[in-house]
Specification:
86 residues, mainly alpha
């Protein structure tokens, strides 16, 4: 759906510029999200190809993730668990 004629690119740019800045936590999340997704993909791929790592991850995911060289924060661990269980 096209925006109304009175909202061309310049007027939309002015409206967006008038918005308050995003909260720092939102900015941080937006910056870290692509890296977190890559990390989840890499760790899940490792669990799918390496039986020993998969067994270690099932036994103690946090320790296995740390041993693989990743910092196991809550969101990363939840995403990995969801992918491995699904």
């Amino acid at each position: 759906m096209a925006p109304p004629a009175e909202h061309d690119e310049e007027s939309l740019a002015r409206l967006v510029a008038a918005l308050p800045p995003a909260p720092p936590a939102w900015v941080e999340a937006a910056v870290s999200l692509p890296r977190a997704r890559r990390d989840v993909e890499r760790i899940v791929a490792l669990a799918e190809t390496d039986r020993a790592f998969r067994a270690a991850a099932i036994a103690d995911l946090e320790t296995a993730v740390r041993a693989a060289g990743y910092e196991p924060d809550r969101h990363l661990l939840e995403a990995i668990r969801e992918r491995l269980e699904g």
